[in-house]
Specification:
Shape: elongated
Number of domains: 2
Number of helices: 12
Mean pLDDT: 86
Radius of gyration: 31 Å
Order of helices and strands: HEEHHEEHEHHEHHHHHEEH
Strand content: 5-15%
Helix content: 40-55%
Low-confidence stretches: none
Largest sheet: 2 strands, antiparallel
Length: 352
């Protein structure tokens, strides 16, 4: 081999080695991509993936995705999600498929879920529930008003008290009427055994919910509820006025936000904004309404809030007591009294 041939051979080798290395690297990358980033299946139906915790860490979601077979590698998902600029995923349910790549799934989980978790606390009136739903499900003001004034006012016994406090997984595009039916249906399911028990005790189910709604607003916690239930039953059985602040708060806020004290919200004057359950003033006790239990004997015409199971149980299993009065001190500890004189002494000792 002459000098020219040797030079050309060396020159070719010089360019061939990097090319070979580049080809090998591309092949390695392709294999790695196929192993960890590609879709687990070529053809698959859409499925549901639910993130249960609030502001779930991406690592937890990645592990669950891998466990359910939506992705091949949890590490790959974390890397891709990080490249998307997201460290957390909104809680809720997403529509994804095993035929999607990690990139596609990360893109979907970086957006808003198809179904959202909505938590309804105990003791809210339905206007407050409407505002929670509107915020989570992006209702317009018009949809929120209709939920309050129309969709939850179609049956008298379902105007208030039956929009059960719990955590729901609700499609973001579900119609407000369907949402009202969902909450009411869940109430029916949860209340069914207690409705049977109420019937056995010869108590109307609507009476149970009315009393439970009052207890829910009046109690400092579930431990107070049986005692308050016993006191309310004592007052009802002795034909005494209940004299409960929460019922006055309810009717006063109706007057403030509706202009009247509507029964079935037929005036449709409700506005979305509202400030509810503020302490009553002495002048509030002069409101002329069946909800004013300082003026009228017996229960209001409907519940004043949406109670949980502890309040419902307390109505059916009240604490046996001779007390007719109660108050909470500044630490929210309850004190009951058998006579008005004892109650006034408690007021002097604990509230003044």
């Amino acid at each position: 081999m002459n000098i020219r041939e040797q030079f050309n051979t060396a020159k070719n080798s010089k360019f061939t080695i990097p090319i070979i290395i580049a080809v090998v690297l591309v092949m390695v990358i392709a294999v790695i991509y196929f192993i960890v980033f590609s879709a687990p299946e070529r053809h698959a139906e859409m499925g549901l993936f639910t993130v249960n915790t609030n502001h779930a860490e991406s690592g937890e979601a990645a592990d669950n995705l891998a466990a359910k077979g939506f992705i091949k590698s949890s590490f790959a998902f974390k890397v891709v999600l990080l490249l998307h600029g997201h460290r957390e995923i909104q809680p809720g349910t997403y529509q994804i498929s095993k035929s999607m790549s990690v990139w596609e799934i990360a893109d979907i989980l970086s957006q808003e879920p198809n179904m959202k978790w909505v938590t309804i606390p105990e003791g809210l009136r339905k206007e407050q529930i409407a505002n929670i739903l509107a915020d989570k499900l992006h209702w317009s003001d018009e949809e929120t008003v209709k939920w309050v004034t129309t969709y939850t006012a179609m049956k008298f016994d379902y105007v208030e008290g039956v929009y059960f406090p719990d955590t729901y997984l609700i499609p973001v595009d579900e119609e407000p009427l369907t949402v009202a039916e969902r909450l009411g249906r869940h109430f029916d399911e949860q209340f069914a055994p207690y409705a049977q028990e109420a019937q056995e005790q010869n108590i109307k189910w609507t009476t149970v919910i009315k009393i439970a709604s009052i207890i829910q607003r009046e109690a400092a916690g579930s431990e107070d509820m049986p005692l308050i239930a016993g006191i309310l039953w004592n007052r009802l059985n002795q034909k005494m006025k209940l004299e409960v602040d929460a019922t006055i708060q309810y009717v006063r806020d109706n007057l403030a936000h509706y202009g009247t004290a509507p029964d079935l919200y037929q005036d449709k004057t409700y506005t979305v904004e509202g400030d509810w359950w503020k302490p009553i003033q002495s002048s509030d006790k002069q409101i002329d309404s069946p909800f004013n239990t300082y003026q009228y004997t017996g229960l209001p015409s409907r519940p004043i809030s949406n109670p949980g199971l502890d309040a419902i149980k307390a109505v059916l299993h009240p604490e046996e007591t001779d007390c007719l009065y109660y108050l909470h001190d500044n630490t929210r500890t309850i004190h009951c009294a058998k006579t008005l004189a004892e109650h006034e002494a408690n007021i002097e000792e604990y509230l003044r």
